[in-house]
Fold this protein.
Amino acid sequence: MPSVSIDPFEAVKVRVEDVGRRMALGPGLIKILKRPKRELIVNFPVQMDDRTLRVFKGYRIQYNTALGPCKGGLRYLPGLSLNEVRALGALMTLKCAVVELPYGGAYGGISCNPKEMSLGELERMTRRYISEISIIIGPQEDILAPDVNTDERMMAWAMDTYSMNAGFSVPGVVTGKPPMIGGSVGRGDATARGLLYVVQQVFKDSGRDLRGSSAAVQGFGKVGSNIASLLSQEGCSVVAVSDSGGGVASDQGLDVEKLRLHKLGHGTVRDFPGGRQITKEELLATECDLLIPAALANAIHGDNAKTVGAQIVAEAANSPITPEADRLLTQQGVKVLPDILCSAGGVTVSYFEWVQDLQYYFWGLEEVRERLGEVMIKAYRRVKEVSDAEGVELRTAAYTVALRRLAEAYRLRGIFP
Ligand code: NAD
């Protein structure tokens, strides 16, 4: 079987097992942490524009609630599988624990191809899915957020659907909403900004300057495009970018704002006149200081890890590196900044949004960014301390920090009854 088809849930479970044993967590606790707490699968009909009915499959996985209410994204993807959503729920549980948010982890999604659907079809599908899972979500139970192929429009429909069924507005059931209806300022680029704060610290710690360095970004969606903009604003040259349509590169650095306009007009970065065309695989092999996978799982696998041309890989996507590729990159001396730390900026500002929604009291942009910086830098320091003290890679250190926190929560709460 080619290494790219590795099941992302297996990958997370293996890492939990390995790190859990290393920490002597005890087999009982490891067993709990390798299983989702609650799983809901819904098959539901949607009226399409041509008046035919289609039945979609949707999932909501409430992975763990030891540290607080469930929290996690919602993605729309063709062929989305139960195990993919389970993996995302497990990662979310670990991510919230690493950055010390009072949340458990969850995830959801619908197997569909949003690129082939009209806005009306997407709205009807979103609303029906939210109605179907409304029996288990809520501002105290499980809070949704945008992820791959979902954005603030869908979050607004989700919040409205839940609220219409409740009979009053419930902004706290969904984060990543437009600020007009209870969203937080600063949520749009929070994942990218959180990653930037971590990368800045890593460069600082190794006596290097981000200004004047170079980066390649895989994926030019909500996260990747914002990362490219922020890096370029910091004086880091973005020398290559790709999306599902292809890639573009320039040794002098791409004009990211012009590239964003091109993507807006053409739906892809391909054929951007300000650079040369490259393939999606060539993007990963770009010689640069920093590679940022910001697309889908398993992008870097056993067959292409050796081609990676960067010294540091900062994971913005969830599970972009398979365990085999992780080992190969380490052998090659590539430093990997793990997803559960690096991409936690989004859920951190989602937490701020939820707090603001529950209080009906909203913060300014500077306050949001300052608090995000505090959370991310503190989390990075905690992970770095464990990495230095125990002589382990940053991913193992991040899992150690997260699992310690979860283990402590179980110790304090005990096992009911
Ligand atoms: P998005 O749907 O906005 O963008 C995804 C991008 O990936 C698109 O540009 C798409 O063209 C590109 N892509 C898909 N396949 C590709 C391939 N083979 N090669 C290159 N590019 C490819 O999604 P997003 O919200 O930007 O999420 C991106 C990643 O970041 C996902 O793994 C997601 O789980 C993770 N993440 C997102 C958030 C968030 O706040 N949105 C938070 C944490 C982690």
